[in-house]
Known about the structure:
Belongs to the HAM1 NTPase family. Keywords: Hydrolase, Magnesium, Metal-binding, Nucleotide metabolism, Nucleotide-binding. There is one protein chain. The protein is α/β, with parallel strands linked by helices. The protein has a single domain (3-182), classed as Maf protein. The protein is 36% helix and 26% strand. It has 6 helices and 7 strands, in the order βαβαβααββββαα. The chain has helices at residues 10-20, 41-55, 82-88, 91-99, 158-164, 166-182, and strands at residues 3-6, 26-29, 62-71, 105-116, 119-131, 146-148, 151-152. It has a 7-stranded mixed beta sheet. Helix 1 links the parallel strand 1 and strand 2. The two termini are 15 Å apart. Sodium ion is lined by residues 35, 83.
Amino acid sequence: MTVRFVTGNEGKAREARDYLSGIEPVEQIEYDYTEIQSDSLEEIAAHGAREAFDELGGEEPVLVDDAGLFVEALGGFPGPYSAYVEDTVGVERLWRLASEEENRRAHFRTVLAYADEDGTETFEGSVAGTLVAPRGEGGFGYDPIFEYNGQTLAELSTEEKNAISHRGRALAAFTEWYADRDA
Length: 183
Ligand code: ITT
Ligand code: NA
């Protein structure tokens, strides 16, 4: 069954397609579901997935991905507001803000919500790293300033990023659940 990955973010869709190749075909759909105001990525993703599943006809399953970058020294900012901050402040200026701090630790977190006629399930993944001056041409969003094990996520291929990233870990939890459910 085709899984509809509901996102306007081509980078997220590329990673999901790559990870799920050989499991299920992934179709990217740009449906503008309501992003509720919440500190909880779970609530935002689950609400969005439910709404998208119903509004898109209630037949094919959907996946929604709500993610954020959490900077330790900034009290977890931008967190659930990461998309807004990327659009307004930008990645480069967020790095400059973080570079004034001694503690450069940060983590990415994503929650994937899957919705079908049986209900909604959420799966999470996170990865801890260090903020650095931008490097690398790959990935998307905050990847150039997020270093893991000596490389920024923008210096990794899609497959390499999936092997260690927040999204890869959430996709792993999802596929494990999905396989058990079919069995
Ligand atoms: P959709 O809501 O349409 O899926 P979005 O880009 O608005 O796309 P989010 O609301 O989840 O996604 O916002 C997450 C923000 O964090 C956004 O600025 C992304 O570019 C960024 N982001 C998410 N995953 C990332 C990753 O793996 N690497 C770098 N930046 C990421
Ligand atoms: Na969004």
